[in-house]
Design goal:
- About 40% of the residues lie in helices and about 20% in strands.
- The chain is an alpha/beta fold.
- The chain folds into two domains: about 160 residues, 2-Layer Sandwich (VC0802-like); about 210 residues, HUPs (Rossmann fold, 3-Layer(aba) Sandwich), CATH 3.40.50.620.
- The strands form three sheets. Strands 2-3-1-4-10 form a five-stranded antiparallel β-sheet, with helices on one face. It has a five-stranded mixed β-sheet with strand order 5-9-8-6-7.
- A hairpin with a 4-residue loop joins β8 and β9.
- The structure holds adenosine-5'-triphosphate and magnesium ion (MG).
- The site of magnesium ion has 2 residues, from loops.
Length: about 375
């Protein structure tokens, strides 16, 4: 049996019920996706799962702060100790501590008193020493209003809030390091992404699919990917920019077009926002000026969870969540449309002025797109 802890801060009334119910459903679906069974109970302040699944599955369920494989007992200290004795007889250890916690404050003994009484029983039967700082074995006891749980291991969950609780977003995913990490962070805060990728070549598309498979291990369901052609998105725009000698604006118009397309798909599927992997000032195109111009594409909120992170921090997160290796595995040939000197200080006025001329249909078919040419 697994005892699951979640953050209760801010969880009151109806919110609490919704949070707990969503987390319970998500746990059920995570288990089902991997072919495991689970019987779930929600005693006050905890979720308890009886399951045949390996416990590390719970390390990837958002909303879980920590979890422990545990045994259940009554509120009677003799009963609790009997369970502990059974556990200790199978363990090798020299030092121990008891860490009791009362979730139900009505219990007649304080946590300190429980620690002391159980500790004395262990000392009586096992001739081991108490070590509060660095024990070989930390025996946890949680007291609820009608039962107790006993455990010796506590594993971290991913934290966050239950998957999907905030609703749908469109997530722009590129196959680089950043957008999968941004996706993870938005999923962690309850967003349910439908991915949108503008395809430049098959290798990068297959990378995107593998990245989504990794992200799916954190979700209670499979995740949708919409693939559209990057050349189709841009060919008229590039043609128009070229014909007025303004190719420097390509990247701003590219991101603007991606957001505009994401906006229209969002409205079709009922998504409430758009996510990207941008980080302020990380590359020449991600200046505040450029981002402000690109944002004119949509009135939906655009979430950029990496906005304040350095590249090194983003790479660290990518390693931790398991996407880094795939992201760096193939760089492709770079974007064939990348101008020699992309604009970094897009003035809003100038952008609006250009927009009228550039976004209309052009003779883009005449533009030859060669995605391999930068290899
Ligand atoms: P990433 O590592 O996510 O590729 P990046 O640092 O390379 O980001 P850009 O290439 O400027 O930065 O892209 C910024 C964001 O725009 C990406 O994080 C992603 O959200 C979106 N994006 C870029 N290219 C594509 C694409 N081909 N399809 C869909 N979204 C894209
Ligand atoms: Mg990129």
């Amino acid at each position: 049996m697994i005892v699951i802890r979640y953050d209760e801060i801010g969880l009151k009334g109806k919110n609490r019920e919704y949070f707990e119910r969503t987390l319970e459903d998500n746990i059920k679906n995570h288990l089902k996706r991997y072919g495991y069974e689970g019987i779930i109970e929600r005693p006050h302040g905890r979720i308890v799962v009886r399951t045949n699944a390996p416990h590390n599955i719970f390390g990837k369920i958002f909303g879980i702060r920590s979890y422990s494989p545990a045994v259940e007992s009554t509120l009677n200290l003799e009963d609790i100790y009997r369970e502990i004795k059974g556990i200790l007889e199978k363990k090798e250890f020299n030092s121990f501590r008891i860490t009791a916690k009362r979730l139900w404050k009505g219990y007649e003994e304080t946590s300190m008193e429980i620690n002391k009484k159980i500790g004395e029983m262990v000392l009586r039967d096992f001739k081991k020493s108490v070590n509060l700082e660095k024990p070989d074995l930390n025996i946890g006891i949680e007291i609820l209003n009608d039962r107790s749980y006993i455990f010796t291991e506590k594993y971290p969950g991913p934290g966050g809030i239950p998957y999907g609780i905030e609703g749908k977003i469109i997530m722009l995913i590129s196959g680089g390091i950043d957008s999968p990490v941004a996706s993870y962070l938005l999923m962690k805060r309850g967003a349910d992404p439908t991915f949108l990728h503008f395809k430049t070549n098959d290798e990068i598309l297959s990378k995107v699919r593998r990245l989504i498979e990794i992200l799916e291990t954190y979700s209670p369901k499979s995740l949708d990917l919409i693939v559209e052609d990057h050349g189709n998105l841009l060919k008229d725009i590039i043609y128009n920019l070229e014909s007025i000698g303004e190719r420097r604006w390509t990247c701003v118009f590219c991101k603007y077009s991606m957001l505009r397309r994401a906006d229209s798909i969002a409205r079709e599927i009922g998504a409430l926002g758009i996510g990207t992997g941008e980080s302020l000032g990380q590359v020449a195109s991600q200046t505040l000026n450029n981002i402000a111009a690109e944002n004119l594409a949509t009135t939906l909120p655009v979430f950029r969870p990496l906005i304040g992170f350095d590249k090194i921090e983003i790479e660290e997160m990518a390693r931790k969540i398991g996407t880094y290796g795939i992201s760096i595995s193939f760089h492709g040939c770079g974007c064939p449309f990348l101008p020699r000197h992309p604009i970094t200080n897009a003035s809003l006025e100038r952008f609006k002025d250009l927009m009228e001329r550039v976004m209309e249909k052009g003779n883009g078919e005449a533009w030859e797109i060669d995605y391999e040419k930068r290899c």
